[in-house]
Each structure stands twice: as structure tokens, then as C-alpha cells.
Write a structure and sequence with these properties.
Blueprint lengths: L5 H19 L8 E5 L5 H9 L4 E4 L2 H7 L6 E4 L8 H7 L2 E5 L2 H14 L4 E7 L9 E2 L3 H12 L3 E6 L8 H13 L4 E3 L6 H6 L4 E4 L1 H4 L7
The structure holds pyridoxal-5'-phosphate (PLP).
The site of pyridoxal-5'-phosphate has 15 residues, from β9 and α9.
Amino acid sequence: MPDPSLIARNLETIRAHIAQAARAAGRDPSEIVLIGVSKTHPKAAVLEAMAAGLFIFGENRVQEAAEKFPIAGARLHIIGGLQTNKAAQAVRLADSIDSLDRPRLADAIARAADEKGRLPELLVQVNIGDEPQKSGVPADEADAFIRAMRARFGDALKGLMCIPPEAEDPAPYFRRLATMADIHGLAVRSMGMSSDYAAAIAEGATHIRIGSALFGHRSARA
Ligand SMILES: *Cc1c(COP(=O)(O)O)cnc(C)c1O
């Protein structure tokens, strides 16, 4: 037997940390969905993760995602800021678009869904720290936008996603997103990455998005 691959070992470590964080928060570890963020990593890395038992992946660029996916048996989330002109490709490829953040993108997604007869699940991305460089609907516009997206997409709108400001305690931002999801009766809270997923789980994350802790470090661009 060869040694389990680095990805398989990382996955085991992450699963153990998820279980620990969930138990510490009085939650059932099976409530927490791990999304393996495979951006910048080759399709072979995705296949390796699948061999180790992970079947849900996230990519932040549609073009790059299209070079690796679809893969039979794998679910794909588009997790990065999505250009309107990439919406049709995202609708074709993704099981979930986690970065819905403006009316024109909603228009493009709706149009593509009509044409293709396929609507992925959707998350509204909230710019929870109101950072100018980040995508996401501004926090103080989020309630109105979420209501509009609910009216437009119905049950396809599953929940909310955020990336808190770097170098700050993320907990208050996670809490704020969870509260918004509660208010709107949305089940999914996608929050938490390699550096902060334990805190996110403590604040009610249902989905965490793990890149570097699973696949290793990325080259500079991501
Ligand atoms: C890259 C990325 C992640 C994963 O980041 P890591 O710190 O490598 O775990 C999660 N979410 C989004 C939106 C990303 O772009």
C-alpha cells in the first residue's frame, strides 16, 4: 500500500478539525459541508480528492472551472465574483453559483437558465465588511437584494456567502451573516476558509470553503 496522498491526509486532518469545532459548538459534524477549493490546482488534484472521498468543489473562475469540470460524481460551486458575460457558462457548468451579488448578474443568470432549462442553486454573496475591493452586495443593501432574489428565483435561492475582512476577528462578521440568513429563513451559510473555519463553524456555518489547507499553497495569482 502506498502512503495516502498528501491531499488524502489533509482531508483527514480537516475532517477531524471540523468534527472538533462542531462538537465544541454543540453541533453535529455531519451538518457541515466541506467544499474543496481547487482553483489553480489541476484536475488530477480534484480526482485525488475524490478518491479520498470528497465530492464537492469550488472554483472562482469560470474559464478555469470549465477546463476541469464537469466531472461525473462531482458537484461544482462557482465561488468567485462572477462577470455578467460569464453567467451563461456558469449556469451550464455549476451546481451552485455562490456569488450572486447584483441585479444585472441575476438578469444574466435568469436568461441563461431559461435558455438552457437549468437553474443552479444560488447563494447571495454579501460584502459583509463593506470592503471596496471585494465583490458581494453591500451589507446595508443585502436585505432588499435577498428579498428580490427570493421573489425572482424562489427555492433555488438557498442561502448566503461571505468572506470577512482579513486580519480582523472574523467572528462578528460570521455572526452577522448568520443573523441575516436567519431573518430571511435561508438554510445555507457559506463562511469559513482555511484560516478561520473553526470560528465559522462556531457561528453557524453550514458550508466551509477550504483551498490551501487541502490542496496546498497556490501560486501568487489567487
Ligand atoms: C480561494 C477561496 C477560498 C479558499 O481559500 P483558502 O484560504 O485557500 O482556504 C474560499 N473562498 C473563496 C471565495 C475563495 O476565492
